[in-house]
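Schema walkthrough. Field components (list of strings):
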Amino acid sequence: MRIKRTILFLCAALSLATAAEVRPPAQVTAGTAFSIATTGGGDAAFYLIGPASVVKRQAKLGADIKVEADEVKVAGRYVAIACGSDGCSSAPFYVVAGEPARVSFLLHPSRVPVTARNAINGTAFVFDKFRNPVLRPVTVDFKVGPKVGSPFTKSVKAVQGVAWMQMSPTPKEGPVKVIATLAGNEEPRVIQQVASDACNLRIRAQRTSKGVLVETDPVKDCSGNAVPDGTVVSFTIAGEKGRTTVDAPIKKGVARVELPITGRATISVASGVVIGNEIRL
Amino acid sequence: MKQLFKAFRGMRRSAILTLLLFTGLCSYAPMLFRALRADSLPQVKLNADSIAPRSIEDLTGRNVTRDYAYAWRDLAHALEANRTDLLNDYFTGFAKDKLTQRIADQKKTGVTVRYVDHGHNVKAFFYAPDGGEMQLIDNAQLEIQVLDGGKVIHQETLTEPYVVLMTPGADRWFVRSLDAFSNK
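Field assembly_structure (string):
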């Protein structure tokens, strides 16, 4: 009888000495209300320490502690702590991002020559509706719509919340729309494709009362895109008085210059790194 | 005899002085250690062997390592002292917003969090072709203490994985997002 009483006393003492426990679920989805089970009894201060929040309130040990959806909107590691009369106990748990709902999309550069290989790159960051990065693999579709030609799609699986793609420009100049698409959410961006360097640069000359009028054929790149107005074309004149270079911008697709040449001369043309034909007068 | 007495008195005086000095040092030791710790940077080891699609330049690697260490130093100071101004130098975007909100909550509840930083093993895995973003996985070794009104209510030592997004500014790299995740 005495032994029985001693064992009972020891058990009671042990249960009193053991601090209350908090038992949150191992993992919770962001923005979802849930309950944390507790053991023990009496009043306690309950704390919830998260990546973007600190909550403190009174709670009853032995009953479930309700955590509101608003208190766990941010994904990350949380620690639930309950401090009662016999000390504090704590347990960590993770809040994970919800379903992918948003995409942040960066597209570079904003202007690109049509011949620049792999010059377009897009990076998409995947988020849930609370702006938590979604780290599990999800597929992001990059829909490319050129001005001329049929649209196409590149599908990329995101790794740790990032999907990226690289592509070469389409052959024709003009705006190209790239849309990052994820779960019905679309982020469009526009990139301007411009003509590349001039190709088959040709000039012709004509004597006038003031000298010689030299002008180019319409200046185009190798894909047939008109080189933009304002691009500088250099005319070099090697004559009896020496060598002179005159720069002229392209206007309405053509570069034109009037040179005061009276005698014999050789005229050549260049634009950037491209050299055109030569004319002897 | 007189000389012996004098020597004894001298010895007693130096013993008392030593004792006072020792007591003083002991009482100021925590402050001294905290001050030393505050100035020291956390250790950051960066591994960029499997970074893609762009490789990382040496100087960029050094700058990212340095700035990430500064960011963690500032984070620990800001959370311990409840000072949001300490987040201005190396945090931006979501990371800064979240920490600012947390400090506001700390002030409201009287809870503070103390980090003792034991170093970071950082693996860089994404560097955008235009150099505009870098993503890292950090296995941070931390000692965390949660205090309410100066009383420790929770204490743990852990290795915590973080996914980090850093973006370059004019003269430094900023932590744009810093999210702990479960790798189980």
